[in-house]
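FAQ

Q: What does a record look like?
A: Structure on top, sequence underneath. For example:
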């Protein structure tokens, strides 16, 4: 998909009488960095420290424990529907949609490319990477676990394993993954307290919407949020280091560090 976005952007800008040669070199460079970041992300567990493994196990443990309250959370959400929430929750649904997140990230990337603004383009690429990397993980898990969605009324422990039906692709939540991946990557890139608060508020609204609409269990959304946040922050940090390296301000990119979240105020 990313190569398709690169290809379409190159064609559209060429047709618009923009010199495509430097754009082509930029796209080639971004595609190369995308591949490098992909390798860093998915090989990182081989470089985890003991503390990082402890944090990983804690997150998995918290998600596993949340299975115990899935039915209670579903009942609470169904019993507390209000006209106000009926109007508010679609905002979360919209923010977490695949079309929304991919369109927004592509728009930011293409805008930076068109106006020759490296910071904007790198922010768009960070968004694209965060989404594609995290959704690859979530999409694979959905098929492997084959968990039934709440509205099927099969219960929160109904796992069918290697299932392609949409009714049995509940775990983890794709909307929550997308929302938190996008918000996390943008938060790291923008690096402003107000932006961090707003972005994570939107992502949290998406998480709530999935339970409010009876599309996901609480544990689905929790795991999706964990995946999206982890990948989004990691990608944001890598792209920040790349930008600083290009500006000759710091040493070359060091191995990726998961679970170290820093928010500058």
């Amino acid at each position: 998909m990313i190569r398709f976005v690169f290809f379409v952007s190159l064609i559209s800008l060429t047709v618009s009488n923009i010199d495509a040669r430097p754009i082509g070199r930029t796209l080639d460079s971004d595609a190369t960095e995308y591949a490098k970041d992909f390798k860093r992300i998915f090989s990182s567990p081989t470089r985890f420290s003991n503390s990082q493994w402890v944090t990983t196990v804690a997150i998995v443990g918290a998600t596993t424990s949340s299975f115990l309250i899935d039915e209670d959370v579903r009942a609470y959400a169904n019993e507390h529907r209000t006209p106000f929430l009926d109007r508010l929750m679609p905002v979360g649904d919209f923010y977490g949609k695949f079309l929304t997140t991919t369109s927004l990230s592509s728009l930011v990337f293409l805008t930076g490319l068109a106006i020759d603004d490296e910071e904007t383009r790198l922010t768009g690429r960070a968004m694209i990477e965060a989404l594609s990397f995290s959704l690859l993980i979530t999409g694979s898990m959905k098929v492997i676990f084959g968990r039934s969605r709440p509205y099927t009324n099969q219960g929160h422990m109904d796992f069918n394993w290697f299932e392609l039906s949409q009714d049995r692709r509940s775990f983890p939540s794709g909307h929550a993954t997308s929302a938190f991946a996008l918000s996390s990557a943008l938060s790291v890139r923008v690096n402003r307290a107000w932006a961090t608060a707003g972005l994570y508020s939107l992502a949290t609204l998406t998480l709530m919407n999935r339970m409010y609409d009876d599309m996901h269990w609480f544990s689905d959304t929790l795991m999706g949020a964990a995946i999206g946040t982890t990948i989004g922050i990691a990608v944001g940090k890598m792209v920040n280091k790349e930008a600083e390296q290009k500006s000759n301000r710091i040493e070359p990119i060091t191995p990726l560090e998961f679970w170290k979240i820093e928010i500058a105020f």
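Q: Is there anything notable about this one?
A: The two ends are 35 Å apart (CA to CA).
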